[in-house]
Fold this sequence. Notes:
This protein has helices at 3-17, 21-28, 32-39, 48-57, 62-76, and strands at residues 89-94, 101-104, 108-117, 127-130, 140-141, 145-147, 156-164, 170-180, 194-201. By secondary structure, it is α+β, with helices and mostly antiparallel strands. The chain has two domains: 3-76, 434 Repressor (Amino-terminal Domain), CATH 1.10.260.40; 89-201, Immunoglobulin-like. α1 packs across α5 and α4 crosses α5. It is elongated and about 60 Å long.
Amino acid sequence: MSALDLADYLRLRLRAMQMTTTEAAKRSGISRQTWHKLLRAEIGEARLSTLTQVADTLETHPLSMLRIFFNGREVSQAGRRGGSTAFVLGFVADVTFPDNSQVRVGEEFEKIWEVTNLGKEAWIGWHLQCVSIDGDAKLLPVSESVPIPDTKPGEQVRLAVCLRAPNTPCSAVISHWKCVNAAGEMAIPSHAGLYCMVKVIP
């Protein structure tokens, strides 16, 4: 559980929407005192109804709030190792083909992730680069690099890649992707990246 990560996310969303805590309290029906506690990470346990109201006010999916609150350390600290908070990627959801989904041999499909910019800097001119190179049976990307829409701090974005399954069945096959900046360098080297893992059936 991570009230600190939730507080970071709330501040970024409020800033991105140019919304004050007074306005957020008015829109959500949640007291300013509760908002201030959330923003100071002073709430160890938050009601599901409260997180749902906050998500609605900040125009984000309730699952985003729940993932960050209960798994925040896991999804955002990877980008903060070394003390840098300039570029931080927060995983929100597997929109399509969650882990261990089944696909047919040779099938072409679209994998979509939803992520959040939890850092202090915008992502400008970035690409998502396939870094899976090992193994005989593997998911083949239709394109090894796809553009990432420019994303301001606090904004969410969906990233989509097209993949083709191998021509032989296998219990698990993975495609691994990382963010590359406009200079062609790994944008968040310490971050594990995004991956798609599926089962390939006849």
